[in-house]
What we know:
The protein has 8 helices and 7 strands, in the order ββαβααβαβαααβαβ. The chain is of the alpha/beta class. Strands 3-4-2-5-6 form a 5-stranded parallel β-sheet, sandwiched between helices. Guanosine-5'-triphosphate is lined by residues 16, 18-24, 39, 81, 117, 121, 124, 159, 162-163.
Amino acid sequence: MTQIPLPELALVALIGASSSGKTTFAARHFGAYEVLSSDHFRALVSGSEHTLDANEAAFSSLYHVAARRLERGLLTVVDATSVRAEDRRRLVELARAHDVLPVAIVLDLPRSVLDARHEARPDRPFSGAVIGRQQTDLRRSLRGLSREGFRHVWTLRSVDDVETAQVTRVP
Ligand code: GTP
């Protein structure tokens, strides 16, 4: 069972392809106001979680709220795929700007699981190929996460790993 001892004040990046279970994991382990979800911010600024041309507005709003929380010393979780280095760099910079530890929880599930879940979700209007690209980007990224500035990296590689992980807060 993977133990995830989180620093009390951290910027937590949940990293994983679509359907890897980030939102479910976040709801299980964190408070509603601790989690900033890119889907939620897309919906707030555009009326739908899936308006892709709302990405810029959604992320700038998400980063703004994250910054306001971090300056108050509140642990903040970012629920976005973050499979691309440039997306993660903004998170590391945000954490550093507020003297907070950037940490990563990676959900790296087998492609077969992602495909099966994607098939079962009528609410995701993109093709399975998108998930394949996200997974490729993620796998390329894995070894470099510490070098990018994440102070702790926990990687969950199976459904069982994700479902049994224990998150604790350490002062
Ligand atoms: P995106 O918002 O598309 O990036 O997906 P996500 O990574 O946030 O995944 P989400 O938590 O929305 O879960 C996607 C699907 O997988 C849902 O249908 C969930 O019911 C299922 N799922 C998520 N986590 C688990 C899990 O731990 N166990 C099982 N059995 N199913 C899960």
